[in-house]
Write a structure and sequence with these properties.
This protein has about 140 residues and is an alpha/beta fold. It is built from 8 helices and 5 strands. It has a 5-stranded mixed β-sheet. Helix 1 runs parallel beside helix 7.
Length: about 140
């Protein structure tokens, strides 16, 4: 398994250990992690801190030229908000841990020229399946249902 996806899974597990939703992400530039993050909506009382958003925030302000050379690894298919951020910053490649528990805006990303690779990693699937079964109210709140 790719070490960057492993880092994203570690972030998801941190989020779960903190009482949050187990979704993690890392922003990678030239094989170096710029930012690591996990969903912190519950922990921070935030409306927007999904894993991808947290990784972008923790990467700090970057020049547009850097974002255009990045890959974002995320344990779950990106929602509309996170997809918007990926498109806004021109990130050209997204690696998705799984999209069986939630299919985000992958087609929009592809339509806008973003390479999207879906791995269907068993650990990612298990993290979300177990979490949704145990905490459906938090999950549906997170995805706006």
């Amino acid at each position: 398994m790719n070490s960057f996806l492993i880092a994203a899974i570690e972030e998801a597990e941190r989020g779960l250990a903190e009482g949050g939703i187990p979704i993690g992400a890392v922003l990678v530039h030239h094989e170096r992690i710029l930012g690591r993050g996990h969903n912190r909506r519950v922990q921070q009382g935030s409306a927007v801190l999904h894993g991808e958003m947290d990784a972008l925030e923790r990467a700090g302000r970057q020049p547009a030229s850097v974002y255009r050379e990045c890959v974002i690894y995320t344990t779950l298919s990106p929602c509309a908000m996170c997809t918007g951020a990926i498109l806004l910053y021109g990130i050209p490649h997204v690696v998705v841990g799984e999209n069986t528990t939630f299919l985000g805006e992958e087609e929009l990303l592809r339509a806008r020229g973003v390479r999207v690779d879906v791995v269907q990693d068993d650990r990612c699937i298990r993290l979300m399946t177990d979490f949704i079964a145990a905490h459906p109210h938090l999950w549906y709140e997170d995805i706006g249902q």
